[in-house]
Task: structure prediction
Amino acid sequence: MNWGLVAGKDVRDSIRSRQLYVLCVLFGVTGVALAWTHARQASSGFADPLDLVRVLLVVATVLVPATGLMLAHEAIVKPRTSGEYALLLGLPHSRFDLVAGTYAGRVTTLTISLVGGVVATAAATALFGATVPAVALGEFALATAILGVAYVAIGIAVSASVRSTTWAAVCAFGAFMLFIFLWRLVPGGVAYLVHGFEVPPTEPSWLPYVRALSPSVAYEQVAEAYVLEQGSVVEPLYALAVLVCWTCLAPVVGYLRFDRSDL
Amino acid sequence: MSAIELRDVEKRFGDVPALRGIDLEVERGEVFGFLGPNGAGKSTTIDLLVNHSYPTAGTIEVLGYDAVADPVAIRRRVGLLPEGFGPLGTMTGRQHVEYAIAATDADDDPEALLERVDLLEAASRPASGYSKGMAQRLALAMALVGDPDLLVLDEPSTGLDPHGVRRMREIIREAVDGGTTVFFSSHILEQVEAVCDRVGIMNDGRLVAVDSIEGLRETVGADGTLRVDLANDPDEVSGVVERIDGVSTVETRDGGLTVACSAGTKLAVLDEIRAAGGTITDFTTADASLEDLFVAYTRRSR
Result:
């Protein structure tokens, strides 16, 4: 097992291609801009410290999945089609090394830039003279990192399963639309069908649990329960478990498909 | 234990058969040339050796390891120069070799390896900017890491200039002298002829011949050519020559005869020409080139 070498190479590639810096700047600038607006509102008495985290959560729900998928959807299919894997699989590497190492590398890149962004946000908030909600911000960083990892995982699964970068892009975009928007409608639609083409008078109790199978919905539940501490629709541990399952199972599916196929 | 052992190996891409039952054994320490026209299945076979792809049927053993069950053990002892490879991300030439050393857990000196393939002065540049020939030499340097027991080279001379081709040949010789088995594919016949102990000829997914070059010559009837210049009209004697046993074709050209015949009949041809009244002013003979053998085999199996 030699995946650490692949992971190290992946991170160094993202440094040399400036991808890591670009992401740090993206998250940093976004965070600082939000900190600035928040500090202005706070100074005129319209915002409490937790409001900063509320705004960050809204932005992160779209920005982090998009970044995770962007970072991962070509991570395997591109070196596979470019012939890089023909060279790497001439060395004592297994296909597992390639998938696990690339996953670990992309997760590292995303996490570093995400943490960098949150640190910049906290520093800017203090600099602009507002109270820094340090604990909530830390919890936000943790929850958001798991969300990011889940979407990197989905991107890796896509990348390991397809044979062209075009298909990878199509599937990644499809996954983004599905989990961020469409999935919220699916359980309701199923309830409608099950109830004989009528909207059920009360929402069935299983419905939020099916809805929370989307990593984005699960993230919102986790954030509400643990970061904002305002109670959630589903059991927060369930939502957390869903997120963690995505981070583990999606790459396994991708690996199994990649492992049994020709290069 | 042989270096490479293929038993009834078949490979289909969907409905398209690429290999239709290959049996092949390559002994340790030999240089085996793998010949065939484009699309014959050479690269497909090489991909199977290192488990870049899976066989549809049959078994593949490399250095005693099963290619499907134990590909990493094979990759550890094999140096591979694949076909159609690309550079590793943003790495420089030196970083490529360093990576190969780290992955193989070897203690080679990257500088020495780069020097060996004449790439030292370009070592600090990103390999993505290398020419085809430079990339080819870089991959060869990576393949040599860890002193492999078996070198598998897919069309190694692609993109190389004459100097590079000579260097490649020297490196193969050095490796063989050090006890390495070499398996390489090519469609350039002279190279195979120059370095190989045995050759296998692939055509249309089948291995149509495996033999030493002399053995192949004998099998094909070793149709060498005999060129005879005559003082008189060659048409007067061509009929006599055609009737000799062992002569396959006779052409009349430029005031002489070009006779394709087996090695043992050349003298008889000269005797018969003189007996028939021909006046020989000069003659030259040539053995069948590998190219002739190759054409004979790939045509015959069609």
